[in-house]
Amino acid sequence: MLPIFDGLRDITLASITLRMLLSVLCGGLIGIERAYKRRPAGFRTHILICLGASITTMTSQFLYLNLHYYTDMSRMGAQVVAGIGFIGAGTIIVTRRQRVKGLTTAAGLWTAAIIGLALGAGFYEGGICATVLVLVAEIIFSRIEYRILDHVPEVNLYMEYADKTCLERVLQLFRQHNLTIMDIEITRASGSESHNACAIFSLRLHRKCPISTLINWISATEGVITVAEL
Q: Which partner for 8 in 15, 179, 188, 199 could form a disulfide, CB atoms 3.0-4.6 Å apart?
């Protein structure tokens, strides 16, 4: 433990102010990265969650240490850990292309609540270190993840197309570049202009065919309306 924080472990005006300010700072740092990426839970949401969790811990400590209410100090914090799941679940969506989005945001909200609990309890070192590691994971590790995913041997692609001839062109494209089709799911057009025919491909790639290049090839095929990785 850092000795600089030794005088701020007890519930005092100075320690309360520091804990709340650190909660706003740490929650804001995590949230601003999410806001920059246009995620549903951003800057203010993370601040409020982290600050609320911090106040919850401080309230438990105050009731036990100052008012001498003989209760379990961890009970209110445990409710925060369980309750934050409802907010996190609201950020997770399944798109029309059966793609799950929002898992990282939900995990970030949950972690922001834990950081708030740590800061509220006076565990400054843990809260600050956790904030730094979360930012490293979301900013630096995400870039590494994207580079790895660009060379994943197996991918799932969603494609909307105009007619059967277009689908045959795409299948011919796969054969030309020696791509293995492991699975294919086709949904025919409903007859309305708003619902096009679509297909979901499970493909096995090789090193000479990264996913970004493949998507460009498919997009350039006549009759393809849209294509995206799932």
A: 15
